[in-house]
Amino acid sequence: MLRSLSGRFLILTVLFVMLAEVMIFVPSVARFRQDYLLSRLERAQIASLALLTGDFISPDLEEELLSNAEVYNVVLRRDEARQLILSSPVPGEVTQTFDLRDAGPWTLMRDALQRLVDPEPRVIRVIGNPVREAGLLIEVTMPTAGLRLAMIDYGWRILWLSFAISALTSAFLFLAVRALLVRPIKRVIEQMQSYAAAPEDTRRIIEPSAGVTELREAEQALKALETELTGALKQKERLAQLGGAVAKISHDLRNILTSAQLFTDRLEQSEDPTVKRLAPKLVGSITRAVNLCESTLAFGRAEEPAPRLAMVPLAELVGDVIDGERLAIGDADLSFSEDIPATLMVRADSEQLHRVLLNLVRNARQAILATGQGGEISVFAEEDEASWVIQVTDTGPGLPPKAQENLFTPFTGGTRRGGAGLGLAISAELIRGHGGRLMLDRTDATGTRFRIVLPKTLAALDPAAE
């Protein structure tokens, strides 16, 4: 119980209530002492009234009056004259004098604590104002034993009352905390445990119902987190299924492409000029497809392999991509342009960079052909001291808003009907593996431009590649 929230709250409540009672205890005892001394002054004044009439009283009666007043003698000051009204033998020396006429609260509390901690019986003198203005002052000499016993008795009663109040208050607060905080928190914990057992089950997502504002906000945040996690798990499951399917397809497709590769070797022996010109490109395309299948580089795998970096002639790589796309346009009114220095070399994995450029150019080509109108696709590259920059620009219709929101998210960033939404996601991952960035520069009714930035320094590459 001591480890529970309600148990610790109960202990803290008891401690704080007791602390408050202790802070009240000292002023209360000081006030009790003051009232006790004032009552003795009042009794002494009443006892002295018998002598103020001028009548003689016997020693026995005087002793009885002083005993009832619990004092040794009484001095009354009237009309500037100080008069000993009642007296009896004092058993010891007067050790202290207390003037209650102008005593402040700190003085009263100090005197009260001194009396509590001093167990020795002493004789003290007390001065105060007579009641009902019956003189200028009244002074008595009295013992401290009865005063201290009365203060101790009063203190114990205050402490027991404090214990009772703190126990009752703590019990009420304990029940309130359990009802308002502990039970709702336990409900949230039970729901989290239930959700953890089957996070893919949307029925287990929490529905906020707490009445306390802070707890309700926590439940709403938890609901948003669980909803997002469930969606991510479903997407991961789809990716895992896709990875398994790709692995199977890759095995059979590799065998088919290997056979096709053997056939293309014979095509290179043909005397037809067109065949001689196209055969090397066909061989290169099939070789890339075989390599892709062998390494199962589909997005369904957990991650792409690390790039094999080397200095690559970019103009040759881009020319290969554009030559392949020219074959796919047929008689369509679509042109390609390249603005790349012939000597420009970039540090990259040639196969992976080829895939990225092919994805971007092919997406642009498909977007323009879908409009039924002509257009242009251009590839531009430059370098500075820190990086190489490649831009792929088209004059197509631009990307729809929905595609822009999740452009690089698999299965949700597709830019055309029937697409899986994987091309740009794969491309972005491959460029990140190079330590670079793939970003959308602009897209509107006049066209779209993507930018690839590859760093020149290995220091910038390593953290991103990791």
Automatic annotation (TrEMBL):
<dbReference type="GO" id="GO:0016020">
    <property type="term" value="C:membrane"/>
</dbReference>
<dbReference type="InterPro" id="IPR004358">
    <property type="entry name" value="Sig_transdc_His_kin-like_C"/>
</dbReference>
<keyword id="KW-0808">Transferase</keyword>
<dbReference type="InterPro" id="IPR036890">
    <property type="entry name" value="HATPase_C_sf"/>
</dbReference>
<keyword id="KW-0812">Transmembrane</keyword>
<dbReference type="InterPro" id="IPR050428">
    <property type="entry name" value="TCS_sensor_his_kinase"/>
</dbReference>
<dbReference type="InterPro" id="IPR036097">
    <property type="entry name" value="HisK_dim/P_sf"/>
</dbReference>
<dbReference type="InterPro" id="IPR003661">
    <property type="entry name" value="HisK_dim/P_dom"/>
</dbReference>
<feature type="domain" description="Histidine kinase">
    <location>
        <begin position="248"/>
        <end position="458"/>
    </location>
</feature>
<keyword id="KW-1133">Transmembrane helix</keyword>
<dbReference type="GO" id="GO:0000155">
    <property type="term" value="F:phosphorelay sensor kinase activity"/>
</dbReference>
<keyword id="KW-0597">Phosphoprotein</keyword>
<dbReference type="InterPro" id="IPR005467">
    <property type="entry name" value="His_kinase_dom"/>
</dbReference>
<feature type="transmembrane region" description="Helical">
    <location>
        <begin position="9"/>
        <end position="30"/>
    </location>
</feature>
<dbReference type="InterPro" id="IPR003594">
    <property type="entry name" value="HATPase_dom"/>
</dbReference>
<keyword id="KW-0175">Coiled coil</keyword>
<keyword id="KW-0418">Kinase</keyword>
<dbReference type="Pfam" id="PF02518">
    <property type="entry name" value="HATPase_c"/>
</dbReference>
<feature type="transmembrane region" description="Helical">
    <location>
        <begin position="158"/>
        <end position="181"/>
    </location>
</feature>
<dbReference type="Pfam" id="PF00512">
    <property type="entry name" value="HisKA"/>
</dbReference>
<feature type="coiled-coil region">
    <location>
        <begin position="215"/>
        <end position="242"/>
    </location>
</feature>
<protein>
    <recommendedName>
        <fullName>histidine kinase</fullName>
        <ecNumber>2.7.13.3</ecNumber>
    </recommendedName>
</protein>
<keyword id="KW-0472">Membrane</keyword>
